[in-house]
């Protein structure tokens, strides 16, 4: 399968200034980067551009500040990148403006600057043409390696891509290729495991997979909306009327589908969402009053594990339970281990699922661990990603190399 967009490999970057949109939306703790996986994932594109003599102006958002917020400065991110690259990374005094323009103009080949948090500018999420114009003025070319932000039409992901020759970075390219393979031509059977907190954000994906997957295995808080729709008592488990309605719709579509939609057969309950709460294993799924379903049980984990082991392709999004709390981590750990051991192609998306794999030390045992949460789900759902669409088509540069 080929990638339809022009990539950084084809970009004439020598001696040019390149604005690189990266996804450095990383967790911070105590003024330092707590998990640098997303920074490391962008290194191949950054190194390639430096080797080819480009001057780099990096830009990312960090968290969701509404305007300037010094606690969400890119300073710790620039410091971590500097360590990883072994070269100075100059932090700009803002996102755009005269001083930023001067900094960018002074960069030599191989040098790296980082703009401040793009969300310090209200025009970022509004995709303001004036902000896009000022960003475009900082460089000669644009490279987008921020797959995790590609589902947002923002000034740094979409607006600016129309104003400069725009190329895909290596990470963005690989993400699109790996996820499109799951969507368009998976090795069969395709087994999809969906968990996490909410049905509403994932219902489009479930419905799409009802048409294309062989099995969908449901876990996480999401299963309680399905149980609710079946009239099964869910106690204090996480679900709401909207999600129950959506789950009911999915269940009736599933009846007419060749895809097997599996729900948990046993659960682990707690009195409250707390690591020290009273815990009860339930061989069944009718949650008594006064209890919350917080993990799938061991029989469910074993059944799901068998399906995962015999799949040609596995896609997993969303933890099976409140895995951050040790009493409720077993279901997610069992699924993570099954995915890691599976002989089929394994692809994992979603921030919390990735965090779970990292926590269990299994992150390098899957074939592709997506850096995109929402972006990976939207791509799999078949929706166009504005950050990808805005890039040059591959055929526009094919003859120009
Ligand atoms: P991802 O980021 O992988 O897409 P989500 O953000 O949808 O996943 O959901 C992850 C969150 O869901 C985790 O914080 C986890 O604790 C929570 N969760 C999973 N199962 C349950 C449950 N049964 N009750 C409450 N929270 C749950
Ligand atoms: Mg999440």
Description:
The protein has 401 residues and is of the alpha/beta class. It is built from 17 helices and 17 strands. The protein has helices at 37-41, 43-51, 75-85, 98-105, 123-126, 129-136, 155-159, 170-184, 203-212, 223-229, 241-255, 298-309, 330-341, 351-359, 374-381, 386-389, 394-397, and strands at residues 17-21, 28-29, 32-33, 55-59, 89-91, 112-114, 141-144, 166-168, 190-194, 215-218, 260-262, 267-270, 279-282, 292-296, 313-317, 345-349, 368-369. The strands form 4 sheets. It has a 6-stranded parallel β-sheet with strand order 5-6-4-1-7-8, with helices on both faces. Strands 11-10-9-15-16-17 form a 6-stranded parallel β-sheet, sandwiched between helices. Strands 13-12-14 form a 3-stranded antiparallel β-sheet. Helix 14 (351-359) links the parallel strand 16 and strand 17 (368-369). The model has no long low-confidence stretch (mean pLDDT 96). Residues 350-352, 373 line the site of magnesium ion.
SSE layout:
Elements lengths: L16 E5 L6 E2 L2 E2 L3 H5 L1 H9 L3 E5 L15 H11 L3 E3 L6 H8 L6 E3 L8 H4 L2 H8 L4 E4 L10 H5 L6 E3 L1 H15 L5 E5 L8 H10 L2 E4 L4 H7 L11 H15 L4 E3 L4 E4 L8 E4 L9 E5 L1 H12 L3 E5 L12 H12 L3 E5 L1 H9 L8 E2 L4 H8 L4 H4 L4 H4 L4
Parallel strand pairs: 1-4, 1-7, 4-6, 5-6, 7-8, 9-10, 9-15, 10-11, 15-16, 16-17
Antiparallel strand pairs: 2-3, 12-13, 12-14
This protein binds adenosine-5'-diphosphate (ADP) and magnesium ion.
The site of adenosine-5'-diphosphate has 20 residues, from β14 and α14.
């Amino acid at each position: 399968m080929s990638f339809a967009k022009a990539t950084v490999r084809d970009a004439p970057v020598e001696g040019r200034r390149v604005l690189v949109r990266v996804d450095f939306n990383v967790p911070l703790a105590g003024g330092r980067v707590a998990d640098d996986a997303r920074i490391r994932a962008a290194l191949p594109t950054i190194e390639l551009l430096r080797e080819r003599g480009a001057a780099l102006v990096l830009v990312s958002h960090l968290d969701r500040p509404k305007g300037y917020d010094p606690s969400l400065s890119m300073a710790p991110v620039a410091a971590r990148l500097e360590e990883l690259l072994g070269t100075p990374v100059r932090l700009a005094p803002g996102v755009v403006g005269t001083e930023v323009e001067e900094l960018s103009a002074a960069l030599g080949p191989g040098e790296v600057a980082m703009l401040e948090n793009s969300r310090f500018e209200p025009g970022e999420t509004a995709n303001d043409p004036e902000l896009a114009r000022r960003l475009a003025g900082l460089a000669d070319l644009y490279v987008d390696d921020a797959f995790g932000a590609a589902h947002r039409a923002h000034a740094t992901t979409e607006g600016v891509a129309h104003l400069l020759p725009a190329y895909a970075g290596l990470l963005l390219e690989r993400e699109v290729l790996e996820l499109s393979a799951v969507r368009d031509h998976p090795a069969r059977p395709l087994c999809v495991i969906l968990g996490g907190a909410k049905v509403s954000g994932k219902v489009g994906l479930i419905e799409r997979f009802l048409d294309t997957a062989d099995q969908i295995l449901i876990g996480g808080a999401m299963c309680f909306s399905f149980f609710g729709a079946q009239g099964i008592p869910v106690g204090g488990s996480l679900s709401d009327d909207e999600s129950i309605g959506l789950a009911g719709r999915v269940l009736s579509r599933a009846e007419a589908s060749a895809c097997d939609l599996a729900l948990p057969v046993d659960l682990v309950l707690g009195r409250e969402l707390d690591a020290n709460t009273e815990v009860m294993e339930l061989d069944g799924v009718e949650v008594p009053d006064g209890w919350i379903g917080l993990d799938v049980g061991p029989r469910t984990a074993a059944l799901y594990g068998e399906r995962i082991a015999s799949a040609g392709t596995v896609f997993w999004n969303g933890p099976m339970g409140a895995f951050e709390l040790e009493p409720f981590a077993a279901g997610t750990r069992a699924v993570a281990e099954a995915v890691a051991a599976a002989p089929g192609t394994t692809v994992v998306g979603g921030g919390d699922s990735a965090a779970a794999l990292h926590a269990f030390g299994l992150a390098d045992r899957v074939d592709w661990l997506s850096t995109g949460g929402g972006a990976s789900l939207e791509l799999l759902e078949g929706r166009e990603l504005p950050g990808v669409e805005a890039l040059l088509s591959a055929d526009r540069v094919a003859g120009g190399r």
